[in-house]
Amino acid sequence: MTAQASYSLPEGIxxxxxxxxxxxxxxLPLRGDLAHIALAKHYLAAHYVIPQLRNIGDAPAPLMxxxxxxxxxxATLDAGQEVEVLDCAGDWAWVACGPEGPSGYIRLGMLAxxx
Length: 115
Prior knowledge:
This is Bacterial dipeptidyl-peptidase SH3 domain-containing protein. The protein is mainly beta. Helices cover 0% and strands 34% of the residues. The chain has no helices and nine strands.
């Protein structure tokens, strides 16, 4: 079973009271369709995700800004580092290093096997 990150869920009505500046790609775990649950009180997204905890495998993993091997690398994650998986599509996982980021895409094969 995959471990789940623990965050307090927003209470009451969640809404925005004014314009919000869009963060730079690769920073906060926020896309137009999906966001980390910890960002629900500050950013509007169609869906919010409670992330699943996983670890990077035996080699460092480049954190890509898009789901492409030729995309810009936003950061490099250390071997064994814990990450929060927010979404999977094809061979890619959208991960974050917590609600403050960084966030980006890694190949699923870069994650350690789940226990």
